[in-house]
# Entry
Amino acid sequence: MPQPPTTDQALREKNFLIFSMGSFISMLGRQMLAVAIGWDIYEKTHSALALGLVGLAQLLPVILLTLPVGHWVDNHDRRKVLIFAQIINAAATGGLIFLSLTHGPVQAMYACLFLAGIGRAFHSPANAALLPQVVSERNFTNAVTWSSIFFQAAAILGPALGGLLIGLHHNATLVYTIDCLASLIFWGMLGWVKVRSLDMPKQAMTLKSMLSGLAFVVKTRLILAAITLDLFAVLFGGAVALLPIYAKDILQVGPSGLGWLQMAPSLGAIIMGLVLARYGNFRNSGKWLLYTVAGFGVTTIVFGLSTHFWLSFFMLFLAGACDNVSVVIRQALVLLRTPDEMRGRVSAINYVFIGTSNELGGFESGTVAYFLGPVFSVVFGGFATIATVIATALLWPELRKLDWLHEPNPNPKVQS
# Structure
């Protein structure tokens, strides 16, 4: 008689536990770095434009390298690719340590951030594609859920620890050092992870082969629908980018209130992640995906109209909970419905679309807020998210009918 599922069933697998702990340490370092680099560059330049270039320097290599990196991940040992990414990350933050100690120029810091972006371009698709090789298929959705929990925990702890250390030492050197060590620790822990081998033919790096991941996404309608839904939901629902305005001018709660507001979505995501870890293998996955993205839109509208701090906090909490359901379903769907030999390329496509939508969403929200006000920007984004859900449900009716995530892929493989 089969055993009932447990909340920590994926964590009971030693390989996944080591892999996820190493990944958490690496993510924690990156979250600390995000705070430190912004503080350091603004201290040196006092320029908002200089802060904007921080994101661009890291995002540009991700966009440029998406296709070749995806091909590389599918044609080489994914664990070695992930190790290579940690070495690149460690080298980038090593450069920041040197520049911090020697008071080097800001231009050189951007060069280090560009190098960190190269590491990020390799890290994300390799990390996603490797996950099915370190955990059993029966526990895969649970593993995706725990990965999301660890990410959200790092998103809460990292900025807090980074800000605390900067406040104590009045410079970013120690934070840079911790991030460098975090990458090296993950590198070492990957050596203890046993990876299920794949019998995949090697392919030459041609334009057709590199584009085959994109072709597979376009032809696999369920994956295309899930990515499109998430892309536009994040693009329009970018209320988080305007939280400083809400904290200061609308809710009037100051910096401490801003910290609580910024924490609320991650807190909601963690609580929902724990629920999903216990009950995550649910039926009617497509409907749950549509419902939770619509819920994200509704909570965004209420947040946009709220003038009461705790109502705003609760709406952001619910938005994070809804978002985590959609993230887990999308990530599990993409990886379970993609053949082993295509996971690197498909993960790279998935990452660049979802990753860039965060930056573009912040830009969209800020631009609309500049011309029409922050309340209009947030409320409009919520309604646009709901409209996206309706359009997705109409354009891809198969998503509404999606039941179990682990059903066999009905689409033929794209030959590369």
